[in-house]
Design goal:
Blueprint lengths: L14 H14 L6 H6 L8 H9 L4 E4 L2 E4 L4 H34 L3 E7 H5 L8 E7 L4 H18 L18 E8 L11 H9 L1 E4 L1 H9 L4 H4 L18 H10 L2 H24 L5 H13 L9
Parallel strand pairs: 4-5
Antiparallel strand pairs: 1-2, 3-4, 3-6
Helix pairs in contact: 4-6, 6-11
């Protein structure tokens, strides 16, 4: 499923080089970080804020403004990121409530989902009221499209419940607001290890926050030791996730399907075709922005979902 592009290798030039390479990644995703965030998410491992401050002051190619930092030529991202951080503080609690509700309903309805991880702006600290809420999933082998389709059907419930919200042009669809977004679905057998192993893939994993299935997410990290070469701090985190709730009627029906290999293959094939139609519809209704373009580039390089339909 996943491609294997040649990623930028970590420079051994010390902290200065790691700062520059980390900022390049963050700028590709459309933002400039706070210095504290940069110190925690540095390529090659974290550094103290004090040490980082000293390094930043000695580099003429960096812009430091109001606690944010960017490379020369990307100073415009600082003001945008300031607004994002401010809005995140105001809207984080309400968005997390929606995210946990979505995750709970999806786990209830789809027993093939082993992990639901928060991703995107809500996980990285830059959520705004016009954003959707992003998720990455780890699922059982042979159920990628079943889980992808079920996630969208569950998401429709939240689109209807929060239909009064006004999202930006990229996240808006013609009928209902796109409140939730499944970015990537990783079957367990395709994460042992991932075929794709570059700094953007490692950065995505670093920023994921499991809401359900922390052990499945940790197993995925342990099966991909190459991530340590980019972000060893990804392995030092602990998550408190909710226990899986009792399955609803749909969840019990799918559990029965899961025990029948022939029926499971049929349902996966049918779900793939339906999901492809849904994907085409959604993509025709969306427009790009710097952060959105970076995320779509990540998904393109991950070959999901567009090229995955051609597997």
């Amino acid at each position: 499923m996943l491609s294997q592009p040649t990623g930028t290798q970590i420079s051994d030039g010390g902290l200065a080089a790691r700062v520059g390479e980390t900022l390049k990644i963050m700028h590709r995703w459309g933002y400039a970080p706070r210095i504290e965030v940069l110190s925690e998410q540095l390529l090659g491992g974290p550094a103290s804020v004090e040490h980082l401050h000293h390094e930043l002051e000695a580099r003429p190619d960096l812009i430091v403004q109001d606690g944010f930092v960017s490379l020369q030529g990307y100073a415009h991202l600082i003001r945008k990121s300031q607004r994002r951080v401010d809005s995140h503080q105001s809207f984080r609690a309400a968005a997390l409530e929606i995210a946990r509700g979505f995750a709970r309903d999806l786990v209830n309805s789809c027993p093939m989902v082993d992990c639901i991880a928060l991703a995107g702006s809500l996980a990285s600290g830059g959520y705004g009221p016009q954003d959707d809420i992003d998720f990455d999933l780890i699922v059982r082998p042979g159920t990628k499209y079943i889980c992808y389709l079920l996630a969208h059907l569950v998401g429709l419930r939240f689109s209807w419940r929060y239909r009064h919200l006004r999202l930006d042009e990229f996240h808006r669809t013609p009928l209902l607001p796109k409140i939730t977004c499944v970015n990537v679905v990783w079957p367990e057998d395709q994460a042992k290890p991932f075929a794709r192993r570059d700094e953007d893939m490692a950065f995505e994993l670093l920023r994921c926050e499991p809401l359900y299935g922390a052990q499945a997410f940790r197993s995925a990290l342990e099966n991909n030791p190459w991530v340590r070469d980019y972000f060893p701090q990804a392995y030092d985190r602990e998550w408190h996730t909710e226990p899986n709730p009792r399955p609803n009627l749909l969840g019990r029906l799918l559990a029965g399907v899961d025990r029948n290999p022939m029926m499971l293959r049929w349902l996966e094939t049918a779900s793939r075709r339906i999901a492809w139609i849904l994907y085409q519809y959604v993509q025709r209704s969306r427009r790009g922005s710097p952060g959105a373009i970076a995320r779509m580039e990540f998904l393109r390089r991950a070959k999901f979902p567009y090229e995955a339909f051609q597997d």
